[in-house]
Amino acid sequence: MEAGPAPNGSTGQKNMSPVDMLRIKQQMSNQCFEMAVQLNAGKNKRSCSTSEAERDLPDYVTELEEVKTNYFNSTLALHRMQMWHAIGEKLKQNDAEADALKAVSNRCMGMCSHIQQIQKESRDLQNEITDVQKKRLEMKRLTHEKMKEIEELMSKKEHPDIEKYKAVLEKGLANMEKYKKITIMTQNVLRGILLACKVHWLDDPKLRDLVMTLEEFPVLD
Amino acid sequence: MSLLKPFSKLPCLNSANILLVESDEEFQQSLADALVDETDFTVNVRLAKSLPLPVENEESRPRIDLVVFIINLTSELSFQSTEASLKYLDPGYFLGKVCFMATNARNASVPTERLDAVRKLAASLHCPLLFAEDQTPDGVANATERLLTILKVAAGLVPMATPLYLSNLTRCTVPLDIDQPSFD
């Protein structure tokens, strides 16, 4: 059951400002538009399934959105132009408000140039920072390379020489052993001869030098 | 059958008429009190338990801009009464002049099937589904705000927006996995 109507606010003749009247006019035009749409809806009747309609719907909505956005942007642009025109007109009349406007705009200009200057400084500083970072990166790279080279050398040192010259080294060592043995034998023979001859080797300098090179040569009297 | 028709009467100036339909008749009153506090324009609130509306008031009733069905999710009767009332509404209303409001959605005793059923109903009719918390004044205030937004568009008070356009943006959608069993 329907209860009595809730408190009905009176739309009596309170002071209607132009803004209110414009609002009411907007409302009326909206309502008329709705009713016109309703009337037109019955005219172009074509049968299609709901799924078809669902598929077409987003396209129409997008179209609507685009038109609305364009309209909104144009309105914004129009408002901007109107504002600037009004400000321009005001500035032309040289009264107190125009002076205030001029003062404000001068302050704005001052701040803008200040901003520009600070932006330039920060940009220079940023560039410096980038340069330093680049140098550091370069240093790092060089260090890295050097380290790699060192590692390579350290690992290389042992193998290749031994690999290549092993055979030759061995042969040389064997030769050296052989000649050492020959020398020792010769020395022994010489020692034997000198001993047997009972020569006074201390008197002759040349002989003395020779004997010094032999080991453990007994001093004869 | 007396259908409630959206365009059978002349509209009012600088005001909006809203019809709250609720079979329990609990939330209606507090919502109505909050709605009439709006000052920018006049809000006329009509309350009803279900449709069809009584014939006696036919003449004095103004054109209804927005019909709100309040469904209490904890009672099956509320849902069934709403479904029955839908038949008495002219199809012209479903182009953005109908709204569903569900209360007690956080209650643990609500079976998920009912919530899904409400969602499917709102989605099939292309209407917005609002959830409201009716126990605290904050909840009532929130619900009022949201209803007022939709009401303003339905009454034509928002330039460049028609209820049909708004319904495209606010309509309830049903997630694809609504028929899957949920975690319980």
TrEMBL record, chain A:
Record keywords: Centromere, Chromosome, Coiled coil, Kinetochore, Nucleus
Gene Ontology molecular function, alphabetical: kinetochore binding
Protein known as: Centromere protein H
Record's GO cellular component terms: kinetochore; nucleus
Localization terms from the record: Chromosome, Centromere, Kinetochore; Nucleus
Family: Belongs to the CENP-H/MCM16 family.
PANTHER family cross-referenced by the UniProt entry: CENTROMERE PROTEIN H
Any single GO BP term: mitotic spindle organization
Coiled coil regions, renumbered to chain: 115-152
Domain Centromere protein H C-terminal: 20-215
Keyword field contains Coiled coil: yes
Automatic annotation (TrEMBL), chain B:
Main localization category: nucleus
Gene Ontology cellular-component annotations: chromosome, centromeric region; nucleus
Subcellular location, record wording: Chromosome, Centromere; Nucleus
Pfam families: CENP-M
Keyword vocabulary terms for this entry: Centromere, Chromosome, Nucleus
Protein name per its UniProtKB record: Centromere protein M
Organism: Solea senegalensis (Senegalese sole)
